[in-house]
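To fix ideas, we quote verbatim a fold written out as tokens:
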Amino acid sequence: MNISLKWLLTAVFFFCTLYIEAQQVVLSGKVTDKSTGIPLFNVLVTVRPIGESKIVKYAQTSQDGKYEIKLASFLENHTLHFSMMGYASQTIGVSGNRSLYDVRLSEQVTELKEVIVKAPGIRQRGDTISYMVSSFADAQDKSLADVLKKMPGIEIEKSGAIKYNGVAINKFYIEGKDLLGGQYGLATNNVHQQDVGSVEVMENHQPIKALEDISFSQNPAINIRLKEDAKARWVGTAKVGAGFEPFLWSAELFVMRFTAKTQSLNAYKTNNTGIDVTQETKTFSIDEIMNQFSKNYRLENYINVRPENLTDIDANRVRFNKSHMVSTNNLWGLSKNYDLTSQISYTNNRVNSDNFSKTTYYLKESTIVTDIGESTTSKQNCLSADLVLTANTSAYYLKNKLNADLLWDDIDMGITGTYPNTQSASVPHHRFSNDLEMLKRSGNKTYTLNSYNLYQFKSQYLNVTREGKILKQNVSSSAFYTNTNTSMAFFVKPVTIAIKMGIIGVFRSMESELTGVPDTLGIMNNDLSMNYINLYVSPELEYKKGGLEAKFNMPVSLAPYRYHDKIQELKDSDTKFLLSPSLYIRYHFTSRLSASVSGRLAQSPVEEQQFYSGLLLQNYRNFSRGLIDYNTANQKTTSLNVTYKKPLSAFFANAGVIRSWNETKRTSNRSFIGDYILNTFMPQNNNSDVWMLNGSVSKGLDLINGMVSIRSSYMGYNGSILQNGINTPYSSKIWNITPKINSKIAKWCNFSYEFNYESNRLDVKDTDFKSSSESISQVLSCNFIPGEKYHIQLRGEHYYNKMPNNVSKHLFLADAEFTYSFAGGWELNLSVKNIFNQDKYGYTVYDGLTSMNKEYKIRPRNFLASVFFRF
């Protein structure tokens, strides 16, 4: 009886469950943009009775556009209603025999009554933010870069790299195509802003279509939308100018043509006005996850004869140059999914610079002070060519890139002061590479094959004439680098599991000869080879569900090294086992707020390029000697980043903190031997740690018809260096804050103002020595447009430097420009630079246990008249 009763109760419970489940109804589906097919996020989906506004139940679509509504039972005479700002609403009747409802919404202008739109130049569609260029451009703006700097959330660094809300972009498209392959400075500095309709920022952009729902991206991309009248025909700009004191010239020609199947962007520039046009061909690339299997293997520059880089002041102020740049970039659409692109650039750059420096070396119990005056002439020629074939579909991805970079760099420098001498160096660098990437997707599986092969060589020399003595250094090095790997991934929603296996090979040789130096300093020649094979396996795991995203990988490698010193008849070998796990987690609290944390334990590869025993002369005073040491460095890094955005209110904010600890078995050692400095390594433990904090906020304001922003960063470093064999611990702290504002006060007037404050502090531990410096820079630019045909631009700069011993310096610079516009796109421009005719600029900078008081010569007052034409 008991057994029968139990079976009876079980059966009753089972059938009741079936009845309840039978009554429950689940309505689901996916909402996408009708024109693009992009999933729409935060679409409101409601269940309503037919003809009524009463809401019975509701849901919102997730980031992948999907929704789900559970009902206790089927509701007759009800509808599903889909609505979202910027799209036409849509209603579908609910049917008893149907549970899946996919919807495509069409864009529609939403009329708002009695609502003030805070940022009419910004709109959002899904995870794409669109900036209308005309809403941010002013009369004085010529290039796209001029306008990008005014867009909230977008930052352009001094190098030209673009960030969106603190994160570097991973792709730069024009009309949806990757024409420039990372050399996007050619577009931002040359495309006229009046030819651009909008700038689209695609957040978390996955550039490989076959991975869009499998592997997420941490970086945004930018897409430039041209105006219709700037497509399917040749458009561009031309400018030519001349001036005096000394004789000045400037000429530019830019032409482009974009059609449905072809794209062409071409530029030629030349000037001696201080503008460095060669930087426009610079390639900006990022790695989504830091790892040791990169494609950035580069031969060491053992000879270093180059003036110090500037800080604070615009480098154009102190550059005395003769520069030429020509670049042609073309894309051909071979078929719907296949593109062939080519980029060819040539630059010729001759630069003269004059500077004076007072360098102080802080030793444990004393200091060494030197006074150096440098007069440098550098002549650089660079030829770069790329040919890229790309196929990008939802089923497969193919990219093959052929590249050649040929660099010739000659430097002549005259030195006065404590160590008068002359030095002449030639440091060419030639490299050839092929990069193949293949990916095939089959359902929820992907297969990849990547192979990167690089050959590079350098044949460099340095001649130093000092006190009647001639020192000569010749260095010839070459390397072949290969990195080939394959991987297989399985996607079982919401998890992707992948395993990557590969091999890295390096085959390097180096020969050097040094003459004119006393034999007592050590061995003068090198003749060596260094080879290693790195076998690696990297399991990877990705998780994405709702607002949570996570990535974990754990590369494991086994690397046997073989070193051969032919002069000392030394053969050495070792095998290293490396393990470098990393974890990245990001959570989207809302569509506006997200936070990410990451951690990494890394074992860096052996520093094999420091394997040499003979002396190398780096410049007139510095020698280097390597160390045969197979120990690897250990690094622990953690980071936290928070981003918030409210695009329609033109508000963007981000903040981040990075903490890292480094442990090495070697310590850099600087020894002062008479007039020379010997830089080498000692087999001694060395620990250091770093704090890095950064953040930025930008807000568009209707009140001032412009934008305000503020950026700040801090870096604290604790470490040590060996000087004359004595360990010297020290700490340095650098803090920077930069507020900025631009405003269009009236139709006839606009201005921009930027303030920068930086504090630099050096503390040598176990001593009473402390030193600090402060610097302030201010830039104010005012533009007056009293009439439609002409405008006036005034620019003022102020620099303040507070150096040790309470010494401070002020510098004021001013420029003025007058532009008159004729009919048909012609403009006449008259400009005067450095109105006050300032001739010098000085500041203090710290580098480890060294401080340098630098002083640079500034370009004198000069006048330039130019004619500009847009067609």
Summary: The chain has three helices and 50 strands. Residues 2-23 form the longest helix (22 residues). The first strand starts at residue 25 and ends at 33.
